[in-house]
Amino acid sequence: MFSAFANAFRTPDLRKKILFTLGIIAIFRFGSTLPSPNVNMARISECMAFASQGDAAGLYSMINLFSGGALLQLTVFALGIMPYITASIILQLMTVVIPRLEALKKEGGAGQAKITEYTRYLTLVLGILNATAFVTLARTGQLFPGCDGILYTDELFALVTMVAVMTAGTGIVMWMGELITERGVGNGMSLLIFTQIAAAFPAGIWGVKVANPGTIGWVYLFAMIAISLLVMGAILFIEQGQRRIPVQYAKRMVGRRLVGGSTTYIPLKVNQAGVIPVIFSSSILYLPVLYSTFQPESAFAQWVNVNFAGANGTFSLPYNIAQFVLIILFTYFYVSITFNPEEVADNMKKYGGFVPGVRAGKPTERYLGYVLNRLTAPGSLYLAIVAALPTLGFMLVGANQNFPFGGTSVLIIVGVGLDTIKRIESQLQQRNYEGFLK
């Protein structure tokens, strides 16, 4: 592995890409610690010291997770990459509902460029809405309940400036992610998420020790690290699991040439949906909590505070059941819109491909749907169980629901790390170097 690292830096163009990516990540981390105008950082530090950060972060767990804790400090990059992720998910879902978007998706590169442009616009709109919401929470003292004085002034111009700076930060983060994808190594947006989650690891790990003083704290600390490494290994094993459906192509004449006759396969992953169902279910469950924050006196808000207490860092059976069910439902839904058995079967039939033992056309479509449903069932349960790991960690070691080896964070860390290593390895193998994976 060390020789692979040396080979990666020995290759000039690959070294340039890696250093460019690291430079963008360094700028990104700097912006995540740079406070927005009108923010009293000294007061925020006091609020985070005396209040329970786990309780505050629990209300906004998903956005805070993807911002590396920058959300609660109201930095320039406080919103992180979350508005872009939400906009991307919305556009993907809308392609099923809106015929215009579906037509653009089928146009290839030009259509995808137009969808990307719509995603950027929607990201800025969501950035304005999110920035306005969190500036309002900071002004009213609800970002840290019972802790005031986070902002120097609540004048309109100062508040509008904060919203503009945080929204501009979202646009810059989106631009930097696209720069990494174009000129660096790996998927830019995924690497930025990876960076923010990894940045929260040291403080999160030490928080387990602090929550359990004495010798028992060290025992919990090392036990949690050991178990988390085992969980990462299990996730790595499942993430690479796939069902390969063999496909044969008949020989046919194209002009004067005889083409075809090759054998390939369709790789169907066990976790075909990735981490999207976990993100989407958390976003849905975040909405009633956000409503209860703005309308704390309503009956619905009181019900949410009682029955969805799990969002505040404590165990709640209704919250965890709702999350478990939503993840399963969203997994099936997302897989159904990202992999269309009818379209795949038609393309195979068009180019003379068939699954051995299955007739082309409708029988192939039914077969692909049958296999996909059998894979989605364990895949959805796997995602739901992994997402429940923070709750188990809270019950076992007293960590809050954002402790570093939570379900979503582990999925992202493993998935992005594996994808980045594979991309570097493919470039090394093009130059006849041995890669990372044996």
UniProtKB/TrEMBL annotation:
Location of the protein in the cell: Cell membrane; Membrane
Main location: membrane
Gene3D superfamilies associated with the record: SecY subunit domain
InterPro entries according to UniProt: SecY, SecY/SEC61-alpha, SecY_CS, SecY_dom_sf
UniProt keyword annotation of Ligase present: no
Matches recorded under PROSITE patterns: SECY_1, SECY_2
Keywords noted in UniProt: Cell membrane, Membrane, Protein transport, Translocation, Transmembrane, Transmembrane helix, Transport
GO cellular component: plasma membrane
Gene Ontology terms: biological process: intracellular protein transmembrane transport; protein targeting; protein transport by the Sec complex
Transmembrane region(s): 70-98, 118-136, 156-176, 188-206, 218-238, 275-294, 321-340, 375-397
A Pfam family: SecY
Protein name: Protein translocase subunit SecY
UniProt source species: Tessaracoccus oleiagri
